[in-house]
Design goal:
Layout: H1 8-16, H2 23-29, H3 35-42, H4 49-56, H5 61-68, H6 77-84, H7 89-97, H8 103-108, H9 115-126
Helix pairs in contact: 1-3, 3-5, 4-6, 5-7, 7-9
InterPro entries: ARM-like (IPR011989), ARM-type_fold (IPR016024)
Protein name: Leucine rich repeat variant
């Protein structure tokens, strides 16, 4: 079913469930006024890089946190850089907990201004 055929109140759930969508459809949804839709989109491992970059700068921390937990960010260095410097500690911690986050990013976070972030990065590096 095309995303355009899905009722608006069911769109976030359809995105979470991996409903098939084109890159342009996903990009258009990245600017949705509904943060639940953007949050669901942020968790999709098939989201194009342009969508990941856009969502990394989202005004809602729940969207950025969902993105930080997305395994796809592990190969998107520009997105990693944005999320690693996020002002919301929960976003940075979600990035640290993401198994796809590379060691290089974790090492950068060893110098983070927040002690709990530094400790979390150190703990993750110990198990790599």
């Amino acid at each position: 079913m095309a995303l355009t055929a899905i009722p608006a109140d069911q769109l976030a759930a359809a995105l979470r469930e991996g409903e098939e969508a084109s890159g342009s459809e996903l990009f258009n949804l990245a600017t949705s006024k509904d943060s639940k839709i953007r949050e669901s989109l942020a968790a999709r491992p098939d989201a194009p890089l342009s969508v990941l970059i856009l969502l990394a700068q989202d005004s809602k921390s729940n969207v950025r946190k969902a993105l930080a937990a997305n395994p796809a960010v592990g190969i998107a260095t520009s997105v990693l850089s944005i999320l690693a410097t996020d002002k919301d500690t929960d976003v940075v911690l979600a990035l640290i907990e993401n198994a796809a986050t590379p060691a290089a990013t974790l090492r950068v976070l060893l110098d983070h201004g927040k002690k709990n972030v530094r400790r979390a990065a150190e703990s993750r590096l110990l198990v790599l």
